[in-house]
């Protein structure tokens, strides 16, 4: 008697408010685009997918000069994101023909230091505008810890793996370039339990040392090696000068971002106070504000209040009950004391 093939498991339908996701594999069968689509019942943002047959229509159906003209109006970070959208776009933007696009994008950024000789346009854009660690590539938070001499952004965990620039480190390098004029290093602050100790230490890079060793050992002729050493010394001199410009620009960008976030937080508090007044809690908020002290601090630093995010109707509906409960408890405690 023939065995019947096992029954296929019934395909279950996801609930109304669930979001289906599909991992994007190497074949890039689908590109996920996050768009705002209101759910019929809850107004939840959902992910929509662009079918594979449409994802590269921009590249295939539009004349190349028109595509390049469009891309030339984007910023460096936009181009980086675009290059990671599909293989075709990446191939286009990483080609030599796209150099003018990257150059135009770079020139849209006011005050950005000039392109250094040792980096290509995409490499420079990645150094200045990517926000992830270049070593572990974990997209968690913003990685603003930049080692300009190494041309890398490194998170604290990856920074801890850098070797100290000491005798042990130098002894592993060829004698011909065991000195800072060629072998790059950085001076960093030493902190203990997150507190600056007042000391500094010099760090090296195993990656850079490996690259230099490989180039050096590939040359068999002494004359070629001497020329290589002179060239690397000149390159290192230029690399050491460029970080000063980058540090100044980067510090200004961080200050500007901090000011923007402070403005957003201030506006959010004002909007929340206005909303609370509209539903009858304005008096209690004014009492907290007039008293100041820890009571107002508790309100101002409440997890739903102190966010660097614009207050929307949807966002307000999500925090309203929580804030009303907080103010009710404040009022109860105040009346008990009075």
UniProtKB/TrEMBL annotation:
Annotated F-box domain residues: 56-105
Chain segments carrying region Disordered: 1-28
Composition-biased stretches (Basic residues): 1-10
Pfam family for this entry, one: F-box
TM helices/strands, residue ranges: none
Alphabetical list of Gene3D superfamilies matching this protein: 1.20.1280.50
InterPro entries, per the entry: F-box-like_dom_sf (IPR036047), F-box_dom (IPR001810)
Protein name: F-box domain-containing protein
Organism: Rhodocollybia butyracea
């Amino acid at each position: 008697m023939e065995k019947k093939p096992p029954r296929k498991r019934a395909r279950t339908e996801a609930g109304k408010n669930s979001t289906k996701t599909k991992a994007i594999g190497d074949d890039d069968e689908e590109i996920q685009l996050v768009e705002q689509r209101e759910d019929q019942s809850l107004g939840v943002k959902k992910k929509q997918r662009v079918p594979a047959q449409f994802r590269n229509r921009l590249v295939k159906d539009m004349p190349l000069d028109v595509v390049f003209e469009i891309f030339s109006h984007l910023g460096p970070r936009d181009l980086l994101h675009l290059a990671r959208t599909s293989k075709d776009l990446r191939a286009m933007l990483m080609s030599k023909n796209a150099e003018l696009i990257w150059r135009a994008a770079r020139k849209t950024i006011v005050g950005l230091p000039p392109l250094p000789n040792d980096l290509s346009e995409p490499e420079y854009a990645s150094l200045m505008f990517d926000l992830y660690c270049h070593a572990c590539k974990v997209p968690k938070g913003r990685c603003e810890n930049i080692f300009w001499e190494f041309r890398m952004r490194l998170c604290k965990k990856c920074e801890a793996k850098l070797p100290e620039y000491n005798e042990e480190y130098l002894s592993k390098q060829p004698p011909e370039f065991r000195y800072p004029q060629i072998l790059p290093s950085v001076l960093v602050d030493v902190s203990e339990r997150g507190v600056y100790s007042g000391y500094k230490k010099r760090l090296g890079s195993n990656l850079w040392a490996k690259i230099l060793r490989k180039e050096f050992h590939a040359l068999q002729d002494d004359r070629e090696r001497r020329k290589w050493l002179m060239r690397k010394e000149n390159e290192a001199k230029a690399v050491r000068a460029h970080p000063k410009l980058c540090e100044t620009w980067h510090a200004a960008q961080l200050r500007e971002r901090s000011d923007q976030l402070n403005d957003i937080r201030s506006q959010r508090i004002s909007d929340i106070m206005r909303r609370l007044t509209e539903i009858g809690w304005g008096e209690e908020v004014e009492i907290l504000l007039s008293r100041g002290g820890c009571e107002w601090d508790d309100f101002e630093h409440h997890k739903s209040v102190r966010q660097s995010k614009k207050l929307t109707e949807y966002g307000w509906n999500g925090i309203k009950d929580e804030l009303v409960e907080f103010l009710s408890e404040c009022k109860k405690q105040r009346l008990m004391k009075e």
